[in-house]
Amino acid sequence: MTRTRGLGRGLGALIPATAGGIDEIDVDLIVPNPHQPRTTFDEEALDGLVESMQEHGVLQPLLVSSSNAEGVYQLIAGERRLRAARRAGLTRVPVIVKEAANRELLELALVENLQREDLNPIEEAIAYQRLGGEFGITQDEIAKRVGRSRAAVANTMRLLALSDEIKQSLAAGTISEGHGRALLSIEDVAARREAWQQVIDQGLNVRQTEQLPRRRPNGSAKIATNGVDPETDQIEARIRDALGTKVQLRRQKNGHGKLVLHFFSDDELHGLLSRIGVAAE
After folding, report:
1. d(Cα 253, Cα 121) in Å, to the nearest integer?
2. pLDDT single digits (tens) 63-102
3. What is the pTM (predicted TM-score) of this model?
4. What CA–CA distance (Å, rounded) separates 192 from 35?
5. φ and ψ at 180, to 5 degrees?
6. For the domain bounded by 153-275, which CATH number is listed?
7. Mapping DSSP to helix (H, G, I), strand (E, B) and coil, where does residue 74 land?
8. Can you tell me the distance from the alpha carbon of 165 to that of 152, in angstroms, rounded to the nearest whole number?
9. Which pLDDT tens digit goes with each residue over 254-280?
10. Three-class DSSP category at 232
């Protein structure tokens, strides 16, 4: 499922005008960003970038900072390009040099990856956690810096409460972030694991996963996977994507019904109210 983001602050907004122009330096003088939030790289996409660089060179400069070691630069953003350049046999790459504190090293790398939608949900959640834990940035400030809502940041960070095996599924793309949020609504750890296994085995969509906690007769986690109204399913999905929360739509034949929006903290409630245009008192 594609996640739509409103990244109001791009790299351009985070790189001040005082940053230098484009230079060219040896690739061997660039060391990795220790705060890089991304840990997995698509090898097939990387091979495609290598081929492009072999033909056209590096079209977009890397962002680097002066390192403590003289003549060495620390990468801020552009690790995929740096890896591809080395594989392509390039000895020099274009760079923009910017002085950056540790927090900025993480922040700029995070924003670049979010803009490219390169991070999986767990990498994104860990990056938010580090911005809060290591640098004392509030969720509201993190949201402003990366151009997401506070509720979206909070929802993503909540995924870290899942077990390691479920987080591995999220990181691998076996289940989506929507699945992860639905599984979080199951408080019992054993029942949550059982539900996760059922999602994997039966290929349940997010709506079906959200129904699991309500359909466990005599401890059974099985639910019917047919009989779902496609139109209702689509409407729920659209609302869920727009508001970033669990949604339940109940429709009756006479045209009546109810729409239930779920939240899991006061922060999420305030964020939800804001997105639907209701000012919190």
Report:
1. 38
2. 888 766 677 888 887 888 888 899 999 999 998 887 766 6
3. 0.54
4. 32
5. -60, -45
6. 1.10.10
7. strand
8. 23
9. 778 888 888 777 767 777 787 787 765
10. helix
Torsion angle, alpha carbons of 41, 91, 22, 59, to 10 = -50
Question: How many whole angstroms separate alpha carbon 102 and alpha carbon 184?
Answer: 32
- Separation CA 208–CA 223 (nearest Å): 8
**Residue 16: exposure state from Cβ atoms within 10 A (0-12, 13-18, ≥19):** exposed
Q: Report the catalytic residues.
A: 79
The backbone torsions φ and ψ at residue 114, rounded to the nearest 5 degrees and listed phi first, read: -65, -40
The CATH number of the domain covering residues in 11-116: 3.90.1530.10
CATH code 1.10.10 region(s) in the chain = 153-275
Mean pLDDT on 237-247 = 77
Query: By C-alpha distance, which of 110, 119, 103, 100 is closest to 10?
Result: 110
- % the chain with pLDDT above 90: 14
Contacts for 271 with CB less than 8 Å, ≥ 6 apart: 149, 150, 151, 152, 154, 244
pLDDT over threshold 50, residue 225: no
